[in-house]
Amino acid sequence: MKRGKLIIVSAPSGSGKSTIVQWLMNEHPELHLAFSVSCTSRAPRGTEQNGVEYFFLSAEEFRQRIAADEFLEYEEVYENRFYGTLKEQVDRQRNAGQNVVFDVDVKGGCNIKKYYGDEALSLFIQPPSVDELRKRLEGRGTDTPEAIETRLAKASYELTFAPQFDRIIVNDDLETAKAEALTVVGEFVSK
């Protein structure tokens, strides 16, 4: 069996990253894409199951695994609230022939790319402009004006990371961005 490839997808919030990734995964089974199953120290929500959506670890166990250098990338988002990707889990998925998709923040994406080099394809989904990003975030109707300002400030910072990615896909038209992502990912996994 052919060992799976690695596809890293990063973007500022509201850029359409998750929409594009979900479309690739749901509409293109020929790509054999599977999400990287990450770890978190938060409690499961709703019907989430250990090993499906996340591996649920205690904050202490998370720290022990950090100390043992078991993570490709991790972040302490809030005090004692960790998220991260285990090297061992990625290897397990790749050895099963899955092309592993990382839907991660820009720093995590850069760290994973640095670790795997040419074995990974890194994509940056970029909004056409910060103004357009504002319209999208406001259009969602899910955030307060203060939260939108925080997200926009973070997005401006995250946009500075775009040149570190293999490909930048500007999402000014969703169908065009999806088609470009399909072409780039398809070429990469067929190598």
Average pLDDT metric: 92
Low-confidence stretches: none
Query: How many angstroms does the end-to-end distance come to?
Result: 15 Å
* Class by alpha and beta content: alpha/beta
Label the overall shape: globular
Q: Care to count the β-strands? A: 9
Question: Residue share in helices?
Answer: 40-55%
The total count of helices amounts to 7
Strand content: 15-25%
Strand order of the largest sheet: 2-7-1-8-9
> Could you tell me the radius of gyration in angstroms?
17 Å
User: SSE order, as H and E?
Assistant: EHEEEHEEHEHEHHEH
The major sheet is characterized as: 5 strands, parallel
3D architecture notes:
It is a single chain. By secondary structure, this protein is α/β, with parallel strands linked by helices. It is 43% helix and 23% strand. It has 7 helices and 9 strands; from the N terminus they run E-H-E-E-E-H-E-E-H-E-H-E-H-H-E-H. The chain has a 5-stranded parallel sheet, with helices on both faces.
Tags for this model:
191 residues; alpha/beta; five-stranded parallel beta sheet; four-stranded mixed beta sheet; 7 helices; 9 strands
Quick rundown:
The chain is an alpha/beta fold and 191 residues long. The chain has helices at 17-27, 59-67, 87-95, 106-116, 130-140, 145-159, 174-190, and strands at residues 6-10, 33-35, 38-40, 54-56, 71-78, 81-86, 99-103, 120-126, 167-170.
SSE order and pairing:
Elements (H helix, E strand, L loop, with lengths): L5 E5 L6 H11 L5 E3 L2 E3 L13 E3 L2 H9 L3 E8 L2 E6 H9 L3 E5 L2 H11 L3 E7 L3 H11 L4 H15 L7 E4 L3 H17 L1
Parallel strand pairs: 1-7, 1-8, 2-7, 3-4, 8-9
Antiparallel strand pairs: 3-6, 5-6
Helix pairs in contact: 5-6
